[in-house]
Amino acid sequence: MSDIRRSEICIAAVADVFRGDGEILASSFGTVPAIAARLARLSFEPDLMMTDGIACLTANVAPVSGAEAEDPIFEGWMPFRTVFDHLWNGRRHVVMIASQIDRFGNHNFACIGPHEKPKAQLLGMRGAPGNTIHHTTSYWIPNHSPKVFVEKVDVVSGVGYDRAKALGERSARFHEIRRVVSNLGVFDFDTPEHSMRLASTHPGVSVEQIVEATGFELAIPDAVPETRAPSASELVIIRERLDPANVREREVPHPES
Amino acid sequence: MGILDKRTTEREVVAELFDGMTLGIGGWGSRRKPMSLVREILRSSLKDLTVVTYGGPDAGLLCAAGRVKRLIYGFVSLDSIPLEPHFRKARQAGSFEASELDEGMLQWGLYAAALRLPFLPTRAGLGTDVPGINPEIRTVRSPYDDGEELLAMPAIELDAALIHMNRADARGNGQFLGPDLYFDDLYCMAAKRRFMSCEKIVETSELSQLGSMHTLKINRSMVDGVIEAPGGAHFTECPPDYGRDEAFQKAYAATAKDEDAFAAFKSRYLECEDEADYQKAVQDAREGASA
Fold first, then answer.
1. For residue A251, is it within any domain?
2. For the domain bounded by B10-117+156-245, which CATH number is listed?
3. Hey, which residues does B71 pair with through a beta bridge?
4. In sequence order, what are the beta bridge partners of B9?
């Protein structure tokens, strides 16, 4: 399997964030997370729920690219009002993209620069505040760099562990940032102070390379494992069932060897 | 105009609006927006508005025209274009006060106003910069044994609400035939004056033949004026009547980076005599493109 591409490593790593989630709504933003959530659903987490991106829960899994889509089988109605009820109820795990993220997982995709007059207006708060305080969140970062992994985010749209701690145990009891997956590695918050820790490096990426591309001090264990490769059957699902047109490679180009 | 007949026009509605008011605009992003009413506002001299919206081109156009003093929003998006470029431009120029909220908080503020409550508690926003951006927002402690501290989302009371439905009757019963009502009922219930445009006005007896009873979410006590506006949501989508005019939207979005193109867009589409004139300009452009 020496022909496994970086994008496929990332997809398996993002799929793994849903492991053990069971019958909850899996929401994803970005190409790799869209493929990853579907991969989890079609392999090890068959009970995950998904929407058609409009207002319905779908019982079948639509491909992300290329292939002929079969007609969706609707298993429930989920207009935005129900989405908010559902996510405040907690049965959801979202993978969001971060424009900036800090050591404690504080997240920003609202704007760059001061909020009164931003240098760059981005998406705005959208649902990030409600998501991060109510249910499990993971992050996908397709372009790992010191501009994204920053010492301090310009605006906090998603709650990090230091801010959750300041809220107190009761207010923050549903807060969980499970993992951060970038194009270089996988990160969790499995340290005593819940600061970001390097969990694995993608094949072909060194610890030094990750440290170099990170704008804050990462916790680095003595032995850092390599991110797992997708299995042969997972590769078939990714390549033939979900993304035959290979749009994944547009989001994560394979590094030049 | 009796209570059994609330039919009115864009012009009459906008004549009732006033400078400095708080205006709620229904729909979501570039979906089922009351654009014919927004266009009429752009033809008027209304200014210093506080606009409350799950924003799309309504927010973009009003911001670009300098009519917005304060925007209360969770996002401003064109859906197929994630960030509304005219909104982005106005934001980066610092040209209005940006009261940015979590999407769920915005619903909660409208719902509190609809229920005539001063606030509704929520966890959404806690621990983020939303309270810092909106310093009027306070927290509240549960009076019960749990003692949990929650964010107290204040009611967002509206002077007027504008929504667009697929069908309505002359009395103000409104019907959505698409996949999502969004929060249009809450906008109406949160507002002092409520105006509903629709694709087509039909007899009351026809409504239940056009869709299930679940589509009749706007009742006549929630509406003061009904405007028949075929194509009134253009260029946003209004399914099942029509989808989004993606080509038009793309051209509109591109004008944010090109002053001359925006001037041409304005002269062609915003400086029209009235809505019928706008619809004709859109039709002419379409025929020109296909000829």
1. no
2. 3.40.1080.10
3. B51, B98
4. none
| Residue of A121, A157, A163 to mutate, interface with B, max B Cβ within 10 Å | A121
* Interval A84-93: pLDDT, tens: 999 999 999 9
Q: Would you say residue A206 lies in a domain?
A: yes
* Range 175-204 of A in CB contact (< 8 A) with B: 175
CATH number, domain containing residue A221 = 3.40.1080.10
Q: Which of A181, A178, A185, A190 has the alpha carbon at shortest distance from A210?
A: A185
Query: Is A15 among the domain residues?
Result: yes
Six-digit token string for A174: 């549903």
A174: nearest CA in chain B? B123
Q: Taking the domains of chain B in order of start, what are their residue ranges?
A: 10-117+156-245, 122-154
Would you place residue B201 in the very low, low, confident or very high pLDDT band (cuts 50, 70, 90)?
very high
Q: What is the Cα–Cα distance from B59 to B51, expressed in whole angstroms?
A: 8
For the entire predicted model, the pTM comes to: 0.96
Measured from the Cβ of residue B91, the count of other Cβ atoms closer than 10 Å reads 26
Residues 78-117 of A with CB under 8 A from B: 79-81, 84, 87-88, 110-111, 115-117
Domain that holds residue A128: 6-246
Is residue B28 less than 8 Å (CB to CB) from chain A?
yes
Tell me the chain B residues in contact with residue A88 when contact means C-beta distances shorter than 8 Å. Answer: 104, 122-124
Residue A82, in any domain of the structure: yes
Tell me the per-residue pLDDT of A193-221, one tens digit each, with 9 for 90 and over.
Answer: 999 999 999 999 999 999 999 999 999 99
Say if the Cβ atoms of B74 and A88 lie within 8 Å. no
Pairing of strands B225-228, A100-101: unpaired
Evaluate the omega torsion of the peptide bond into residue B240 and state whether it is cis, within 30 degrees of 0: yes
Residue whose tokens read 């850092």: A224
Task: Tell me, yes or no, if B256 comes closer than 8 A to chain A by beta carbon.
Answer: no
* CA–CA gap between residue A131 and residue A240 (Å, rounded): 32
Structural domain count, chain A = 1
Pairing label, strands B149-154, B119-122: antiparallel
The 10 Å Cβ neighbour count of residue A66 is: 13
> B98 contacts in A (CB within 8 Å)?
115-116
